[in-house]
Amino acid sequence: MVINSTENSRIIKYAKLKQKKYRDLYKLFIVEEKHLIEEAIKADLLDTLIIREGCDNPFDQEALWVSEAVMKKMSSNVSLNDCIGICRIPEEKDLKGISFIILENVQDPGNVGTIIRTAYSLGYDAVLLSKACASPYSYKTVQSTQGALFHIPVITGEIETLIEKVKQLGCRVYATTLDSSHSLRETVKTEKYALLMGNEGQGLSEKAIGLSDENIRIEMANFESLNVAIAMGICAYWFKH
Questions:
Q1: Are 27 and 21 in contact (CB under 8 A)?
Q2: What pairs with residue 189 in β-bridges?
Q3: Residue 19: inside a domain, yes or no?
């Protein structure tokens, strides 16, 4: 059986997942690349596999078959997808570990996704997002994570709460800021820590800096600042090595 109608109630529900409020409501999000669907299957987070009529099913999973018009309605990808996955948003669990990334108001989904990918690649235990950050489950964020989203905890909350959570685990919080800071080379590394990164244009709020234990910066020869995802990668690598 193939679903041909874009007005099918199930299709309407899935198409709404492009909007954050419906992702939050249904606890579901859309994945649009084959390799990302594979990562979702590995993480046991695939809820429904959807295949376009006339295409092969490349997975050992039951599928919902749809017409080209229906696939277009659910997709954000410019090119027509052969398949998409409807995935479950994982339940947030108690925070565990010794190294974390905290983001305050990072609004570009590409930056958030790249940071999640980098954090997972370098062995960090979780990424914590303030509520004003880009949604980790939007199309562009999911694409930018390249599947890391399925394998590292991503927790959202108020910045004060997030910082308090890592401090309760014995972590020292390092705020990346030019104000009253010292360079990475001058920083004494600790076993348990969190790196706090701020908004692309405004940096960290005074509140977040005030809750941190130490201010650090990347020493540079020319520009004073870097793209937040690049800066995170440099700091995250330095603390791990």
A1: no
A2: none
A3: yes
Neighbour tally for 7: CB within 10 Å: 8
Tell me, what CATH number does 141's domain have? 3.40.1280.10
Contact (CB, 8 A) for 142 and 154 = no
8 Å CB contact between 98 and 172 = no
Count Cβ atoms below 10 Å from residue 214 Cβ, excluding itself. 15
Instruction: Kindly report whether the global pTM for this prediction surpasses the value 0.90.
Output: yes
Residue 208 placed within a domain: yes
Overall number of domains in the chain = 2
pLDDT tens-place string over residues 190-241: 999 999 999 988 999 999 999 999 999 998 777 767 899 999 999 999 999 8
User: pLDDT digits over 202-215, tens only?
Assistant: 999 999 999 999 99
Same domain flag for 38 and 118: no
